[in-house]
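Let us work through a complete example step by step.
Step 1: write down the sequence.
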Amino acid sequence: MPDRAPQPVDRQLPTEEARELISLVRDIARQEITPKAAEEEDAGRFPRDLFTLLSHSGLLGLPYASEYGGGDQPYEVYLQVLEELSAARLTVGLGVSVHTLSSYALAAYGTKEQQVEHLPGMLGGGMLGAYCLSEPHSGSDAAALRTKAVRDGDGWVITGTKAWITHGGIADFYTVMARTGEEGPRGITAFLVPGDAPGVSAAAPEKKMGMKGSPTAQVHFDGVRISDDRRIGEEGQGFAIALSALDSGRLGIAACAIGVAQAALDEALVYAAERRQFGKAIADFQGLRFMLADMATQIEAGRALYLAAARLRDAGRPFARQAAMAKLHCTDTAMRVTTDAVQILGGYGYTADFPAERYMREAKVLQIVEGTNQIQRMVIARHLVGPEER
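Step 2: predict the structure and record it as tokens.
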């Protein structure tokens, strides 16, 4: 490793427990994730055994209560864990973020009885979750969803199709938003659906530009019968639950984006120190040094932005505007930084022999998932100047 090799991120963590947690995550990343990342992504293999390890290591329930198997960690710490995992492999970091998002509805809105029954398995029992809001005809306009849940005796029958579902077809549980009443946001209710319930099936995974190891698929609910004790919150409360979950989920995506950007910067730093042209390392050319400086500055700004939003959340203060800002800035930063990393590596950056091209392909999806960056701008503007006139 050259003298100018990048060092691990110097994190400002609130407790010694948090420092030990980051150390554990780095060990797992170094030993279990990074060595297999390129091969498994190229082959399109999902590392389910790794998620079992993460679950048993207490990393799939970090921001939730320890009485249900969670880690009692503030979001400030949880997001930095996501960043570390995403720097090693985005399929893993994003997968943890989606699982955490999928567990949110029950953890925040479920009854005590529901939480006691389901959360221990979801948070530390090796289970994996998926979040079902989007549909083939309702992505950004999520309130227009068509999946229906109809009362049937003391239970419900769910029918419809969800789209773009991370972990679709392999999840142990699905948090599903379905229409139980009038059109629009007030007619939507949240449900917890077992992955093996009769009538649940998945289409073939989408063939994606990046994150090939993370299955994304349509999930079909064909007359799926569930009991009323799997309804989360009140009837008609589902859209509010979904939006509340997405506020936190957007912070997860922001942290994932900074992880990918940091990995790309680290790759560019190593290459720039080793690659020699015109008799010296290319890191000694001013034009390239300025690129590296800009990349590092954008990453630090993104990290500060998502952590500031996380601290608001941890303090119980409103953070929706800051979450949208963090998601917007951090994912745009990931796209810029990974593109610049490919440029710094030149022809090698365009080959699969180096991870820079994978980082660039992966960064693109982060500008789209959990609310496109155009939607983030709408959210931010509404906080600043109010809703648009109709």
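Step 3: interpret the result. The CA atoms of residues 102 and 131 lie 5 Å apart.
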